[in-house]
Amino acid sequence: MRRILFLSLLSLLMFSCASKRYAKKAVELERAGLYQEAANLYYLSVKANRKNIDALIGLKKNGEMVLADKLNTFKSAWETRQTKEAVYAYRDAKEYRDKLSAVGAELTIDSKYNTWYNSASTSYLSDKYTEALGALNRDDFNNALTIFSEILNIDSNYKDAKQKYIIAKYEPVYRAAIQNLNTGHFRKAYYGFIDVQRGAGEYKETSALLSQALEEATITILVIPFRTSSDGAIYNRNNFQTVVLNAIGNTQSPFYKVKDLSYINSSQGIFFADGTVDLRKVSLDGIDAVISGDIKRFKVRRGKLHKKEKPAYLKIKKLKKNSDGTTSEYYEYKKVVYTEVKKDNSVYFQVDYKMISTKTGDVLAADIITENMSDKVHYGLYYGEKGELVPGYWKYRKSKSDEDKVYDDYSSRNRFDRMFRSKRSIKSVDDMRRDALRNAANRIAQRVEMYNPEM
């Protein structure tokens, strides 16, 4: 809380100092007759510290002179019938007044200037509107869009400029989408109609054409059970087909429908003797492509939990009394045992697949996918007396041996301690098997999603 209060006070002090610096410089500029530059610095001063009354007075005084210059520029343009220059000069003056008002320096504009502005803007917008309609009628959409944007920026409710703006912006997109639809570029057409619908709502026949484009662009895919060799269980084969169906069904692309054999009117008789699919027959059921493949290998290694007692030492602090009456510390190393635990699991999955067009027999996508997953644990357990456990080796627990070693250096202790802090849970084979199937299926789905028949 104190830190927050300190930072708040520091921030206020910094802004206060900045405000004073700006105001001091503004006074110098004001004395030199540079009221526009002075007004700019007074503005920065007030913005930094709204409580700087002297700066606020200076801003209002010099700001009034700057505003008067801007209004004179507007008046001159209005009197000489320069409608565009008049419109933008008045808007500049009004924006300046609003800017100063936002920091407390209230300035006013005589109502006569507003009357003159309304006259100038009416004339200017009428000319620009006529110009924009001409561009729109000539299908000069870019120019029409630019002009209608300017009109709406000046008057957001001018006549039907909003509707005309939409036409100028989305009519070329709509026409390009129809062109793509007529030339068989259904995906491009679909996205074009989507853009029109999002920006212009129900524009002409967009909804109906959007549905038509999507229907033409959609590919219906049949996923059949994957073949498997002797080391691939039937369960994994059938389960993988389901995972692939779900993965493709969950893609973001709207252009794919995925089916299994239950979709076919009669799945009997669609397979040749070698297990491949009769593409002609399944195409009669509205199938555009078939995904098939072989599970080449599915190897699971479910490791055993190995526990083994290992030698170590318990480091015990002792005190001894010296001959001079002082005490000093020393350490004894007591032989103990701890349990070393090891286990490892692994799954190896390899599958190849093809996506084949039922119309042409062409291979649309193919790959060999390998998923090699493993996990292991290696940690130590100790349930004996409390104390500092250090690594080492001893041959006999009850007696000494020349082979006994204590490794009480930093590096050895650090490695030893890490083993006792290591994770003790291992990913199950079933979890890894599911992950391997899902990862492989997702890679197939990604490849299918990347396929674009229009490229």
Descriptive account of the structure:
The protein is of the alpha/beta class. Among the domains are: 18-109, no CATH class; 143-217, no CATH class; 301-347 and 368-427, no CATH class. 52% of the residues lie in helices and 22% in strands. It is built from 13 helices and nine strands. Strands 1, 2, 3, 4, 5, 6, 7, 8 and 9 form a nine-stranded mixed β-sheet that branches. α3 runs antiparallel to α4 (83-101), α3 (53-79) crosses α5 and α4 (83-101) packs across α5 (111-137). It starts with a helix and ends in a 5-residue tail after the last helix. The model is unreliable at 4-15 (pLDDT under 50).
Features:
455 residues; alpha/beta; 9-stranded mixed beta sheet; 13 helices; 9 strands; 52% helix; flat
Q: Terminal Cα separation, in Å?
A: 62 Å
Binned, the helix content reads 40-55%
- Biggest beta-sheet profile: 9 strands, mixed
What is the 3D form?
flat
Supply the helix-strand structural class.
Answer: alpha/beta
Strand residue percentage: 15-25%
| Count of discrete alpha- or pi-helical segments spanning 4 or more residues | 13
Number of strands: 9
